[in-house]
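Listing S7. Sequence submitted for prediction.
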Amino acid sequence: EEILVTADALYLAVGTSEANRRGGGLHRRGEPEPTSFRSIMAFSRDSGDLLWQRDCSATQILPLSMAVKGDRLYYQSATGITCLNAHSGSELWVTPRASPGRRMGFSAPTLVATTDVVLCADREPGKGEQDGPSAGVIEWGVHGWNETGFARKGKSVLRAYAAVDGRELWSAACKEGYNSPVDVFVIKGTVWVGPDFRGYDLKTGETTGKIDTKAPRVGMAHHRCYRNKASERFIFTGKSGIEVLSLAEKRWLSNNSWVRGTCQYGIMPANGLLYAPPDACACFLTVKAPGFVAIAPQSGPT
């Protein structure tokens, strides 16, 4: 389900992340039956040989939570965050973190690994039937809008952990996006957290400012159903198409209402361009560029 690539290895999350699932969207997705296994596998990039494999069938790795930085691999399970030696697969530490026992299909954690600090933004369990804490198993609501018995929204918290031993360093309130996980970007020692993009010092959690996201009104009624993206100079949001926020000026700069990303994945800034895969979005339908799109910055006055 997931592939991470480093200079010398390939790391795979193998097997089904949402083995326990129900909802009105299942019959439309055409997915195979859930697997009975879940594991992490590491392969050599040079030879293709299997380096190590860790059976995670009993711990239920949450989707989108696997990250690699240096010689460490991290992932979040239903009950906590685990750190492994990326070269051997041996366990270095586990820090408990509870997860709601029921989650909508889009409600994944956002785990970001840096050299010294590991950041994880996720929902906090509540006390009701819809959002009570998991005992080790999570049930997923697979539906584009609402699923009976599942909380569509919930309180979320960003927690920062020391990479060396997993102890908690600081925390801050945050929110999920529209049908998407929390935005967390680490840029030059500052952690920018959505949806209002407040900045926090990576190591101390002290506030460093806020980006003014106010912009001219657009015709789209809600944010697109995917996480935003960032580069070293800008944050690219998806309220309509692509809006550009300047990190230097801490404000909105411009927007493009004609290019959007695909559901859940969004867009990808790379190579000095913005890439948008083909999408099936029907919102604001008559003003979008169809197909696979790559756009460049404006080269000069027109």
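Caption to Listing S7: primary sequence and predicted structure tokens for the chain studied. The first strand starts at residue 2 and ends at 5. The chain has a mean pLDDT of 92.
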